[in-house]
Structures are given as C-alpha cells and as structure tokens.
Amino acid sequence: MVIGPLPPLLHLLGSESERVRHDSTLALYHLSLVQCNCTKLVKMGSMGSILTLLRERGRREIGKRERRERESEVGEDE
C-alpha cells in the first residue's frame, strides 16, 4: 500500500522548525494544484492546519514590515 506524500507532509506541519513548516506548506501548495490531491487534502481535514500556518506567517511578515517602517522613520528623524 502506497500512502503518498500528503500524510508525511501534513505531519511536518507540526514541526518546531519554521523552515520545515514553510517547506512542507510550499510542497503541499504545489501538490494541491492537482485536483485529486486537493480533494484528498480536504477529505483529510488538513485545510485548517494549512490556513493556521499561513495566518501565522502573514502576521510575522506584517510585524516585520511594521518594524522596518518604524526604524526607517526613526532614521529620518535623526
């Protein structure tokens, strides 16, 4: 029996390493472009985990952008 790449990649979403989570999310994204994989991901109930990771990453990126903007404003004041 072949389980395919989806279950191991979904397991990696729970990794403590941000890099591992990022890479597994990217791999899942590319696999989801094939309709049968997209259907399997939905049936496996994985969309909540994927969306949570994307929200977390988006929040981090927004925080980084805001810090850069504040730092550039401080630099302009000097």
TrEMBL record:
Pfam families: Arm. InterPro entries: ARM-like, ARM-type_fold, Armadillo. It comes from the Eukaryota. This is Uncharacterized protein.
